[in-house]
Amino acid sequence: MVSLEFVNPVTGAPAVPTFGCEMHRLSPGGRTPTRRRTGSSVFVVFRGRGRTVIGGELFEWGPGDVFVTPSWAPVDHEAGEPADLFAVTDRPVLEALHLYRETVEGGAQEVTSTFSPR
């Protein structure tokens, strides 16, 4: 996975002071490391198809889908084809308050259930 954070080109601070904007490009054939982060993120699938495991629950996604990752939940992504995910996160606020934390887990998390939209 390759990630790009959108920042103010003059100051290097987040483009919007209260939330972060990120673009993630995923290549097929691998699963990202499982991460836990304080704060939440809203992901919008720009292109591609794949799946994300959030707290053991599998979410399959495609172009136009939106999904949310809650604070401190273990999260990993896997693309079935080249994929671009746009994310909005509250990380800048948590960093300003000195509350942001992030860890990388030892291995891929086990899938215990699959999300089924109604």
Question: Could you please describe the fold and organization of this structure?
Answer:
The chain is mainly beta. It has one domain (2-103): Jelly Rolls (Sandwich). The protein is 5% helix and 45% strand. It is built from 1 helix and 11 strands; from the N terminus they run E-E-E-E-E-E-E-E-E-H-E-E. It has one helix at residues 91-96, and strands spanning 2-6, 20-26, 35-37, 41-47, 50-54, 57-61, 66-69, 75-79, 83-89, 102-104, 113-114. It has a 5-stranded antiparallel sheet, with no helix packed on it. The chain has a 4-stranded mixed sheet with strand order 8-5-6-11, with no helix packed on it. A two-stranded antiparallel ribbon has the order 3-10. A hairpin with a 2-residue loop joins strand 5 and strand 6. The chain is globular. The relative contact order is 0.29. The model has no long low-confidence stretch (mean pLDDT 95).
Notable features of this structure?
118 residues; mainly beta; Jelly Rolls; 5-stranded antiparallel sheet; 1 helix; globular
Short summary of the structure?
This protein has one domain (2-103): Jelly Rolls (Sandwich), CATH 2.60.120. It is 5% helix and 45% strand.
